[in-house]
Each structure stands twice: as structure tokens, then as C-alpha cells.
Specification:
This protein is α/β, with parallel strands linked by helices. It is built from 7 helices and 12 strands. It has a single domain, classed as Alpha-Beta Barrel (TIM Barrel). Helix 2 runs parallel beside helix 3 and helix 6 runs parallel beside helix 7.
Length: 271
């Protein structure tokens, strides 16, 4: 079931570049390559840019650091991969920091890309961790994309397939600069208790650029951060908040570095 497996998550999946001087990149390989590696949750941060909905990486002062293009074009890229891989299930976690309209700005991008046709609508929300369908059920239904939004989703009442994240999924702190990744429940919402949520651990290590307060990812440490010991230590440190369960989603920078999929096999009981 979706609620009992661990899936790798590409943090700022749109922010890819192989240019080492592109300090705001969080990935080195493109979206299709991330998916081909085995990533099954794509995370992205949105902003309105010249009246269009874009995926962008910004600083805390809203300075534009990396523009990943329009959300619609991004979703068209993902839709092409989904069409080529009909037996795969994919989850999105998108952030909506400006509270842009789900109905007027987000839904058109999903509809125009064709992704909306594949999006799962649960019978009711929030969904208990144990009540999510199996991957086989999602695939056979043709509704094999799950969409979470951190703000503005109104529990799916406006656009039913865009689900409010925190009543369903809790997260650990983000923008972590401590390589020991101390675990705590950072963002969540009721009415379900935390141990009945899905949960995502933000396992991406950041650095403060010249003490400017601008936090960027740290590619030099990615092979260690994405290594089996670091991932397992973080995951096992979080099980205390989830009735002993491993995380559902493990968010990473530079998904092509380290051995994240070996760690996933261990956490999923395959190794």
C-alpha cells in the first residue's frame, strides 16, 4: 500500500543544473532522469512570475535564485513519463507560499497537461495512513497520481484531487544544516493523530552561504548525506513519532549521488 512503503523524493525537482556555479540548484539531473532513477515523489516550490505560475527557488527575502519554468510545462514533462510508464504511481508535494488560487491557477496547469485525468481523489479526507489504496489498486483504477499542496487546498473541496498536505502528511524540519538530522514533527495538522499520517523526512543538508542567511544545498556532502548510514540513522530516529513505521517519503537533494535506493531497499525490507 502507498501508506507502508518508502519512496524517494526529489527536493526542488525543477532546480536541476550540471553547472557547479549554479549555487541554487538542488539536483544535477533533469526531471525525467530523476524518475528513471527511481524517484516516486517530486517536490517543488511555486511562485507567480509575470502573471504565470512557475516553479522557482527563492531566498527567505523572496529573491529569485532559480527559475524552473512554468508549472504547466513541468507537468507536461512528467505526463510524458507517466504515459511511457503505465505501471508506475507518482506523488507530488507542491508548495504554494503565495496562496495562489487552486481553482484559477493550479487546476488549469493540471488540466492542460493531462495530469488531472490521472489524479486520485480519495473517498474522504484526511486519509489515515492505513487506508491508502495499494499501488495495484491505483494503477488499475487509472488514478495513479497523488497530489498534495501545503497551502490553499482547503481539504480538496475546491479542486478535489489537490489534497491538503498537512492533515495527511507530516514533515520534519526543513533547511537543515546539522548533518545529524535530529528528528521532530515540524509541520502537521489534525484531526488525525501524527501516527496515523503519512510522513516525510527532509534529508537534505544545507549550508549558509558566507553567513548571509541564504541557505543553499551542499553538493559536496551529498554522497555522504545520501549514503546508507546517514539515511538509516535519520529514518530510524523518526520512527518514534510514527508507531515504529519507517518514513513514507525521504526528501533528497542530488538524488543521483550516494546510495539512496540501497537504503530504501533496507527500509522497505528488501535487503
Amino acid at each position: 500500500p502507498l501508506g507502508t512503503e518508502l519512496y524517494f523524493t526529489a527536493h526542488d525537482s525543477f532546480a536541476y543544473s550540471d553547472d557547479p556555479l549554479a549555487l541554487a540548484r538542488d539536483q544535477e539531473v533533469d526531471i525525467t532522469s530523476q524518475l528513471n532513477l527511481g524517484v516516486r515523489l517530486l517536490q517543488a516550490q511555486s511562485h507567480e512570475n509575470d502573471g504565470e505560475l512557475h516553479f522557482c527557488h527563492t531566498s527567505n527575502s523572496h529573491q529569485l535564485l532559480f527559475d524552473g519554468g512554468t508549472v504547466e510545462d513541468y507537468l507536461k514533462t512528467v505526463k510524458a513519463w507517466l504515459d511511457a510508464n503505465p505501471n508506475e504511481v507518482l506523488t507530488f508535494v507542491f508548495t504554494n507560499p503565495e496562496g495562489l488560487s487552486i481553482k484559477d491557477q493550479w487546476d488549469p496547469a493540471f488540466q492542460n497537461s493531462g495530469v488531472a485525468d490521472l489524479a486520485y481523489v480519495p473517498p474522504s479526507t484526511p486519509v489515515k495512513q492505513s487506508d491508502w489504496p495499494t499501488l495495484g489498486e491505483l494503477i488499475s483504477s487509472g488514478k495513479r497520481v497523488v497530489v498534495f499542496m501545503d497551502a490553499g487546498a482547503d481539504d480538496g473541496s475546491t479542486v478535489p484531487y489537490i489534497l491538503s498536505e498537512f492533515p495527511n502528511v507530516w514533515e520534519t524540519p526543513f533547511s537543515v544544516t546539522d548533518s545529524s538530522f535530529p528528528c521532530s514533527v515540524d509541520r502537521t495538522s489534525g484531526p488525525l493523530p501524527n501516527d496515523e499520517h503519512l510522513y516525510m523526512i527532509n534529508h537534505s543538508l544545507n549550508k549558509n552561504v558566507l553567513d548571509t542567511g541564504i541557505i543553499v544545498s551542499d553538493p559536496a556532502d551529498a554522497p555522504t548525506t545520501n549514503g546508507v548510514p546517514s539515511i538509516l540513522a535519520n529514518a530510524y530516529g523518526c520512527t518514534q513519532f510514527a508507531d515504529g513505521r519507517a518514513p513514507n517519503f525521504l526528501l533528497l537533494d542530488f538524488v543521483d549521488k550516494g546510495e539512496p535506493f540501497k537504503a530504501a531497499d533496507i527500509l522497505n525490507g528488501f535487503a
